[in-house]
Structures are given as C-alpha cells and as structure tokens.
Design a protein that fits this description.
single chain, 188 residues, alpha+beta, Alpha-Beta Plaits, 5-stranded antiparallel beta sheet, 4-stranded antiparallel beta sheet, 37% helix, elongated
Amino acid sequence: MEQEKKFYTLIVFSENFAGLLNQVTAVFTRRQVNIESLNVSASSIQGVHKYTITCWSTKEQIQIITKQIEKRIDVLQAHYFTDDEIFIQEVALYKLSTPKVLDNPAISSAVRHHGAQIVEVNPTYTVVSKKGITDDILSLYYALNEFHCVLQYVRSGRIAITKSCTEYLDEFLEERRRSYEQLQHKKE
C-alpha cells in the first residue's frame, strides 16, 4: 500500500561551500522528488547557511532524503517538518497595469482586502507586494487575475523557523563543542 504524500519543509544547515547546492538537489533528483521551492540564506550563526526546501513526499521518502543530505560532509544538520511544526512566510510581487488599476477601483479594493501594499506606481505599471503564507499569496493572485491586470507575478521561496524554543543546530553545535573540549582535556 502506497503512503500518502504530504507537503514537507526540509531545513538544512551547512557551511558555505561551492557545489553543495548541486549535491543537495541531486539527492531529490535521484529519488524523483520535485522541489517546490528553495531558499538559501545566511543563518544566525556566522559562516553557516540555511537551506529551506519544500516538496511533496511520503514520510519514508523524506526521512531517506534527510539522512542522505545529512551525510554530505559540508552539511551540519538536516531536519524535515510539516507545516504545523514551523512558522512560515513568503513574499510575492505583482506587477499590474496602471491604466487598468485606475479604471477599476475594485482592483485597489482587492489589494487592500488581501492586506497587500502598493510599493510603486508609474504611468505604465503598479507594483504590489504581499507577504504571508502560500494560500494567501495565491488568493490575491487569483483575485487580481480576474481583472486581467496582472503583467507579471513572482513568489519567493519559503522561509521558515521552527516552533521549538531552541534551535536544533544550536544544540548540535553545543554538543560538538563539549565533545571537542572533552577530547582536548583527555589529551592533556
């Protein structure tokens, strides 16, 4: 019996070395799992980068993928989460036709109703920004698209933090530091 696929967010911490992104994405390719979004940024720890990757997968597959990624020499730690275990956020930009926006007050009303911001207006286009969860961002896109005013649309990859009081990486690094100090103490 095949397991049901769920939406997972994988958070990977690594040192910042060239080529690691290729290694990480290759793990998904070998398992024939499509990456839905990918965001890479510096973390709160100097020299450590955080990869936030989303995909549809079975629990068995995501466990295997996480273990394979964690085996990479430059990867410090990898964990997978469901949406109820993390806080998530995305950003979207919508480029709208200014003449259509000016001709139809319902467009501005839709922007306000969805809690978005107008960040640029010129005679040709109006740029709207929206942050939130994927469903909210898509909801605004569908609302605006009904007015046939969307010239361009782009959505960022997901950024996420855990709901845990402590960062798993902090615990891992602290344990590593203690082990190193114990090893140094034994050598003395």
